[in-house]
Amino acid sequence: MNARIRGVYATALTRRFRAAGHDVVQASNPIEERFDDDLGDGPANLAVGTTRDRQGVGLRGEPDAVAAGRDLLEVERDAFSWTDPLPFGSIHVGVVEDTGGGATVALDDGTGYLPFSETEEYVERGDRLRVQVAEPTPPWSGDDPRLSATIRAPTPGGMAVLVEGKRGIDAPDEETAGLVDLLSVDLSDGWGIELGSGARSASLAALEAALEAASDLVADLDSDAGEAGDDGPERLAAPYAGAWCWFGRESRFVLDDVRREVTSTMPGHHRIKAGSERASDAVDFVEALPGCEPEEFPFDAVAGRFGPREGDTLAIEHGKPDGRLITLGRGEVIDYDPEGSVRVRREMTAGGTYDALAVKREAGDVAITTLTEGRWWYPTVYKDEDGRRKGTYVNVCTPVELFPDAARYVDLYVDVVKHEDGGVERVDADELEAATAAGLVGEGLAERARGVASSIERALS
To answer: 233: how many CB neighbours lie within 10 A of its CB?
Structure first.
């Protein structure tokens, strides 16, 4: 494959893709400097980019390239990946469900969001319209993909795009736009050209190849995207596949090791960069000073500068192996341990019972959760307003990461509870077995979860 790789994981992934025999093209200047030989400037058939929250990466491109890239991203047992049901560039007939600042559009496999700025027509509830996925979203974000009513024929790396109904050429500068006149590419009538920033430094051969790929895609779209039916949403064309990968803490440290083969990399490089933009800049600064890198992951220095610290508000973000992300609540950090732990206090609302404990949830109850960086489990103790313990729930999960505003992990289903009367039991083990059978949890990860649950049972009994 020819992969275009961007974002905080770019150096490690470039090393990993090249070691597997693939080409990396359109590299950024820092990546060019870190790899001695020419990485190429041609068009990409796979684009890999860091998600906005820096928790993982998204892939878009030709189906075989996406499948191969997805395999390379499963670097450790706590890396999860999913196929995107609404991939970049797919064209649909959708039905408008609601309008506000834009339109919520029902599609054949989910919903999308169409900003009014992305359509020239008046849109109201019940309208059927043709749209294209312009910006996919990872499953854990909870957001709908952004749609556009303008149809584009893009290359995965964005070097060249043909735009339906557009006239002329949009380019980073006039000189780049003028290069098109030197090329011998037969472009489709009724389609204009948009050139991305990569076109500025590309060779004529690379630019011509990108425009030819976009022109071939127009022909494919013309043949695939025929007349829509009369009822309900439907998919007209899907020129590219898509996938998402969410890295866990172990995976980030494995990527540190890969990056260290190329350039100076402090322990916890990717773990810290995943926390915040400010923390990411701090990592770059430390690594730019020779001899200043710490010997181990500096949790206290990172949390002390960026959080979480005592008095902060921390969310508990509970990932699921199917890609969902559920916020269990937010609470105050009431205790901070520089070795890597925090305690969070949440005030509970009345109503219902506590999961698996079979105890009423009452006004005045509080939950005290202890979260430790890198641990495969965490306990929550529920107490009433008088401080009487109502039970303990121990969640088994991938290693906890304590980011400035949230603790994050992926739930592994099986948990252990200790009841008011002191009885201990394992719960939801059947859910772990079902997830393993469905391929959502790897057998190695499932075995680790079972082992952790057994150790907790023995400790609590």
So the answer is: 20
Taking alpha carbons only, the member of 123, 5, 138 closest to residue 61 is 5
- Judged by average pLDDT, the poorest of 42-46, 53-57, 140-144, 400-404 is 42-46
pLDDT tens-digit profile of 344-390?
999 999 999 998 898 999 999 999 999 999 999 999 999 999 999 99
Q: From the centroid of its chain, how far is CA 300?
A: 26
Residue 367 in contact with residue 394, Cβ under 8 Å?
Answer: no
Look at strands 325-337 and 341-347 and give their pairing. Answer: antiparallel
- Domain borders along the chain are 2-85+243-260, 91-238, 269-306, 313-460
**CB proximity list for 29: less than 8 A, separation 6 or greater:** none
* Domain 313-460 fold: FomD barrel-like fold (2.40.380)
Q: What is the distance between the alpha carbons of residues 74 and 302, in angstroms, rounded to a whole number?
A: 27
305, amino acid identity: R
C-alpha span between 354 and 392 (Å, rounded): 10
**Measured between alpha carbons, how far is 76 from 384 in angstroms, rounded to an integer?**
41
The pTM is what?
0.92
* Same fold? 91-238, 313-460: no
Distance CA 260, CA 256 (A): 6
How far is the C-alpha of 108 from the C-alpha of 232, rounded, in Å?
8
User: Tell me, which fold does domain 91-238 have in CATH?
Assistant: OB fold (Dihydrolipoamide Acetyltransferase, E2P) (2.40.50)
How high is the pLDDT of residue 224? 54
Return the residue matching tokens 């090249």. Answer: 18
Contact predicate 411/404, CB 8 Å: no
Residues 378 and 343 sit within 8 Å (Cβ to Cβ): no
